[in-house]
Amino acid sequence: MKPRWTAVYESINHLHRDESGQDLIEYAAVGALIGLASIMSLHGLSNKIDNAFNSIGSGLTNAI
Question: Which element (helix H / strand E) includes 5?
Fold first, then answer.
């Protein structure tokens, strides 16, 4: 019978070599970067859209 510390060491060593969750972490990191980039681009785009609608509204008001 093996000593208990040997069984614990083998279990920890097996978990250390297991890479099954690595892909999930990489996909989550890529998804977070894509989300951050889209939020930043939409923030800049919202100012341009707001300015366009304001100029259209001012043009319509002045035309009346």
Answer: helix 4-17
- Give the chain's count of helices (H) and strands (E): 2, 0
Specify the pTM.
Answer: 0.47
Residue whose structure tokens are 């509204």: 57
- As averages over each run of 10 residues, the pLDDT of the chain (64 residues) reads 72 72 82 93 87 93 85
Name the token pair of 4: 């208990």
Structure token pair of residue 15:
């978990």
